[in-house]
Amino acid sequence: MTDRLWRIPLSQKILLANSLLVAVGAVAGTVITVWHVLSYPEDLHYELIAFFALTGWLISFAVNSWVLKRTLTPLDRLQSGVDDVRRGRRDVQVIPPPISDERFDRLIDTFNQMVRQQEEDARRLHDLSRRILQAQEDERQRVARELHDEAAQALTSLLVRLRLLERARTPEEAQARVGELRELTAGALDEVRRVALDLRPKILDDLGLVAALGWRADEFNAANAAQATVRTEGIDHRLPHTLELVFYRVAQEALNNAARHANATSVEMALALQNNTLSLEITDNGAGFDPQAVPNDNGSRHGGLGLLGIRERMGMIGGQVVIESAPGRGTRLAVSAPVEESHADFNAETQRGKDAE
């Protein structure tokens, strides 16, 4: 009962304290006055009035100061916590005192949640930055390896053929060497173009997301013993650039995971635009995994930045991510995001970019 009484709002505490003071003062004053009048009927009682006024003021000041001090203790602790946060501390947690106000308790609880969320966001941002740097280094290493294994070897072969061409003794032999040089040059050019397209497909900028997904599916089918298909619905115009790029990267990550980790033989991609919302669903028949066993803030074995990368990319555009999977039952990845930028605005931006080039 006492705890509940102390947890009532501050205004009610002050009102209750002053009401008790008035009631006690009235009763005590009446009793003392009656006694004094009966005992000293000839006195004017001015000193008694002054005594009551001074005593009442002192008691009222003391009681109200005590009530305010005890009740405002949560705000003092909250202010101390805010000062600690401003000084750079991240592990601040304010503990409400036993005597408090329910509204102050809610304020303290909200502050503690904000500090915990801030600390969690800072930790996730640090972890994401580290993984982004690692992913960049991995991508550079992959590009360097492909250039070395394919393009560099082709150029080395070109040098060898050029030396043979220099030593050709007849026009027929020279013609044969020229044909070999032409084939090697075309192969090296195709390899460089493939690496460039893998980094940033020009078809995405020129023709949009639908064409880019179709091209990516064809590349996937050519490089893997699997079949990827693309279905589209409701998309008859270009979409905002950022939206297209994010959805393409999500599809690219999902296809890489299906080939490298899930060993899938079939991948279905369904892209749809309905009610101003773009959605992409990717389903494979691969090995699957347990989504609960993969922390949201951990780069997983599923390639690149894994689930974290997909969630972060979709979070940039206000999107949602749903992952359904189980060991031996394949994986279903569904992402969606609102289409906020108009077709006309996007076309104007694209045209300005082309004019600038």
Write a brief caption for the model.
With 357 residues, this protein is of the alpha+beta class. Helix content is 66%, strand content 11%.
Rg (CA only): 38 Å
Number of individual domains: 2
In percent terms, what proportion of residues is strand?
A: 5-15%
How many alpha or pi helices? 11
* SSE topology string: HHHHHHHHEHEEHEEH
Rough outline: rod-shaped
Classify the helix fraction into a percent range: 55-70%
Strand order of the largest sheet: 1-2-3-5-4
Count of DSSP strands: 5
Name of the top-level CATH class of the largest domain: Alpha Beta
Low-confidence stretches: 296-304, 342-357
Task: Walk me through what this model shows.
The chain is α+β, with helices and mostly antiparallel strands. It has two domains: 2-106, no CATH class; 201-356, Histidine kinase-like ATPase, C-terminal domain (Heat Shock Protein 90, 2-Layer Sandwich), CATH 3.30.565.10. The protein has eleven helices and five strands. It has helices spanning 2-6, 10-39, 46-71, 73-86, 102-166, 171-199, 202-207, 209-223, 241-260, 306-316, 343-356, and strands at residues 227-233, 266-274, 277-284, 320-325, 331-338. Strands 1-2-3-5-4 form a five-stranded mixed β-sheet, covered by helices on one side. It starts with a helix and ends with a helix.
